Amino acid sequence: MLKSLRIACCSLVVGTSVFAGPLGIGRIAQPDEIAAWNTDIRPDGQGLPAGQGDVLTGEEVFVENCAGCHGDFGEGVGRYPALAGGQGTLTDDRPLKTIGSYLPYLSTVYDFIDRAMTVGYGPELSDDEIYAVIAYLLYSNDLVDEDFTLTRENFTQNRLPNEPNFIPDDRLTREGPHFRKPACMENCKADVNITSRAANVGQTSE
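The chain above was modelled as a monomer; its predicted structure follows.
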């Protein structure tokens, strides 16, 4: 993954075809170079690779590659985060935020394992192994049975419990109009007195 990104990045800079920009350097990225960067997995399943993995296989892969930090059952080890449990704790003073209690989309789990957990934390997992690990995590959160197999075809059918509590960002339509009204330019104050500064209350440095 990182190697392909470096190749794409370098090819954008040293290409021989000049792009007619302000500085006269660079060129338009080629489709295969763009594809090397386009590795995100979206909630609707776009970007998912072909593959599948079952719970039992996922347990084996998880114990071998992930349990050292996250525990055999996703309970977390030391200061490393738990991946299972926490249902019903989000209103607590110290909520346990896991796949089963907090995350909205399963695609976030795949994307994070693929692009973060397999870089610097052990050997890179295959697509089938990532599917299997996610199947095991679903099982660890009591969301599927032990004979469950996760595939690209049924991926989006497996919804996480907290999804309804995440809503689209509607600030542009809900709050935006309040900030786009014409400014009031009548009955303005004659002068302005500064009564305090951020540095005085420890908000900024001297």
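Residues 1-16 have pLDDT under 50 and may be disordered.
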